[in-house]
Design a protein that fits this description.
The complex is a heterodimer of chains A (330) and B (503). By secondary structure, chain A is mostly helical. Chain A has helices at 3-6, 14-48, 55-61, 65-80, 88-100, 102-105, 107-130, 135-153, 163-169, 178-196, 198-208, 210-215, 220-246, 257-267, 279-293, 295-299, 304-329. The chains are: A mainly alpha (330), B alpha/beta (503).
Chain lengths: 330, 503
Amino acid sequence: MRPEMTAAPIDNSFRGSAARNAAARARLLRGLLPALSLALVLLAIAWLNPRAISYFGFNLMLNLAIPIALATIAQMFVIAGNELDLSIGTFVGFVGCVTATWLKDAPLIGVLILLGSIGVYALLGALIHLRNLPSIVVTLGMSFVWQGLAILVLPKPGGKAPDWLLAIMSFKPPLVPFPIIAALLIGLVVHFGLMRTSYGTILRGSGGNPAALRRAGWSLLKTKVVLFALTGLFGVLSGMALIGITTSADANIGNGYTLLSIAGVILGGGEFVGGRVSPIGAVIGALTLALAASPLLTFMHIPPDWQVAANGAILIIVLAARVLISRKER
Amino acid sequence: MADTDIIRLGGAEKHFGAANVDIVRLDGAEKHFGAVRALGGVDFHVQPGECVGLVGHNGAGKSTLMHMVAGTLTPDSGRIGVHGAAEDNYSVSRAQQLGIRCVFQELSLCPNLSVAENTRINHAALTGLGWRRRAAALIAAKLDEIFPDHGISASDIVGDLSIGRRQMVEVARAFTVTRDRLDLVILDEPTSSLDAHTAGQLLAFVRRFVAAGGSCILISHVLGEVLRNADRIVVMRDGKVVASDAAGAFDRDRLVAVMGGAEAHRKTKVQASAKPGASPLRVRARPAGQTDGKDLVACAGEIIGLAGLAGHGQTDLLLQIFAGATRAKAGIEVTAPVALVAGDRQSDGIFPQWSISENIGIRSLARLRNGLLISPRREAELADFWQKKIGIRTPDMNNNIFSLSGGNQQKALFARALGSDAGIVLMDDPMRGVDIGTKLEVYDLVREEASRGRTFLWYTTETEELDNCDHIYVFKNGRIAANLTRDELTEEKIIQSSFGDAA
């Protein structure tokens, strides 16, 4: 049942405001859910291994969280426009290979390749809009293209990250671990850009009701191109951050990011359709996944063979909790 | 056609001096969608300070014509002139610049955005620092002006608002002004989701707007609304303008006659309905908030009306009854299968990817089955039967449901309910935005089906429709406030029960 069928009479009676207060409360609860699940994972880690909750521990546990957060933000932009990017994982891998080879050896060419790949994303957005193609099909195809290109660039695992990138990623600020500062920064910058600026509103509106936007005179081609280009941009940042941490690359290095990024967006309170996304939630979702992915399971003494399956189980539990809360809202 | 010649000169050419320049003028506008002719050479114009009423059946071409005025559709042939100047590259953004806005029948708000953010979508000028504050102030001021005591906050997410409140936001948004001028607002069924009180507020505002020199095009199937509020009425039929005259020259009967099709509304004083208790009980239901023990009772063959202001628990009760048919619920007793005809057909009624036949057959799958599979032949038989019976206008029932006009989509939803095995049909204000010809056809059908023993529970916001009911329950604040038989029914009684202290 849709909420409006059961909610709020038109006159200004007590029932109207009560129904809307209930809706607002449920929304608040849903907004807090990502933070709540993160707190839960942290509590579990603290209980299993109190020493992990320290400057050094967080640095270690969260070091892969930055690229995951960036990839999740990348995925969030396409989801905001009611599309899905199944190629983000292999794209991150491709960017990683370029970063560990061209960007170090011939920086100018490396930069051009990366800018060009953002341009390819923008073109994909245009293609999907103009030809009315399902993004799942187009990006699934592209995932093989990126994978193939990555293998061409770097047939064997190796390469080396540029020194400046290593320096950035190993930055150790006082008091607060770098991954936490970086996550905050990413979340706040994207939140401002997408949730607070006037064009960000248009971008989200293009997922909420495209027909309304067209009638108001906005170009849906432009919004789609912008959203896909932003996905490309954050995919590039994710790949570079990943290589800054791992120091060398492998063509398959980012393959798991496709599903992680989708799960991060949904865990963070986003929805597949309707332009409902939350950048800060997405970053928190990515952090939760990064923590649940291996530190938590290792502390629980789950053998590595079972960790992938256990990871999936955690995903199901958290997403099921989200669905239950959303249902209460109805 | 002297006017046409002047338009053709283009540039800043005027008609009869500055005072009389039409805000918008279409000459010989034609539009085809595939093989269907939506508009066949229409001349149409609006003057400053004029409220033009536009009436006609669903599918008569009103919406197509308005899409052209608003710039969302371009005519296949014909010319558009705005403020006396010919427009060759007319578009939505051009229309905005020239001060023409449109409130479309299907709501054009983004449900994921707040009221203020939705306002920004229509105003390219709302950018830069503090745009959120300015957008919020803009829409709040306009809502206060049109609908005092509206109870909407600019920070409300539109998806949380009731359909009536959304319509209020959409209407208010169309009248907000930033950088561009505002000369003409097209209101396509603006009151379809509003109750009588808010609809009155809106129409009073429209009169004030027109008196101050603005112009409006008012499209409504509530003919009284058009007759009372328009200065001039344009009637369309089959993609053509068939009449255009001062509003005073029309009355209800003449309007209906010019629109063609069904004859004027005849009040049904016929058949004294089955005595209550004479036929088996079908539904006994008590609203959740009811404390005084009043029940809604419906027997076989009865048409029961649910009246009162919009959103006072009528839909809730219908949904409870619907749920009560499959699962035991406290206070609800249902003794026959139930079908629901949804009010908000776009979100709750049709399956947009499916054909008309599939949309009709979905409620009767058990009967259409052949082994484990659905038999396409039986599905087609069912669809063809109801196409003939209810008059769904389409060349092929296998076409997508969206190829139908709004009224015909609603007919398909009626066919879905009436073609099923349901002994009880729940109707959630299904005639919203449906033309009078279709309405009269459906009324006849409902009475015919009731005489065969079907029970109808009919929530409606249009008092006239209650004439078809044997028994009327008036709702207020989620409770049954009054219980009237058809003989006792008067508009005053309903209004009294809807607004008075809880009886």
